[in-house]
Design brief:
The chain is of the alpha/beta class and about 140 residues long. The protein contains 3 helices and 7 strands, in the order E-H-E-H-E-E-E-E-H-E.
């Protein structure tokens, strides 16, 4: 069954959420998972793409927009699902994609921004109501 982890940040800014998403993507990929980052639209995809290039000067995380390439460890998309074989999903979209259950692991990031809180509370309730194991990871500032 798909395992779902919510990472709860104390910060309120969307920049802090994006920075943590980059660090989490690096950790997931380093553990050997192929990762898909699901976002709301092309603008959000381009923001995470840019951030993955610059979040740490001493790091390189092989990634690409899904419609450009799917043969890299990390893909970023806003439309349909990635190719088969991707084990983990980092869901930065406000909603849960219909195809979420195909992944072994799902990561959701909550910060104290009101829109994010509202959207991710609804996601939490949806996962729980469908019987998925959900775990919260409160993080310190």
């Amino acid at each position: 069954m798909t395992r779902i982890d919510f990472y709860v940040l104390p910060q309120t800014t969307l920049e802090a959420r994006l920075d943590f998403a980059c660090r989490l993507a690096e950790t997931i990929q380093r553990k050997g998972y192929r990762l898909h980052v699901h976002v709301e639209d092309e603008a959000a995809a381009r923001r995470i793409d840019d951030a993955l290039w610059t979040f740490r000067p001493d790091s390189y995380l092989p990634h690409a927009l899904l419609h450009e390439r799917d043969d890299v460890p990390v893909t970023i998309g806003w439309e349909g699902p990635p190719a088969p074989g991707v084990e983990a999903l980092l869901n930065l979209h406000p909603d849960i994609p219909e195809w979420f259950s195909r992944f072994e692991r799902i990561a959701e990031i909550i910060n104290q921004h009101q829109e994010v809180l509202t959207a991710k509370r609804a996601c939490w309730q949806t996962y729980k109501s469908r019987g998925y194991p959900v775990k919260a990871h409160p993080l310190k500032g």
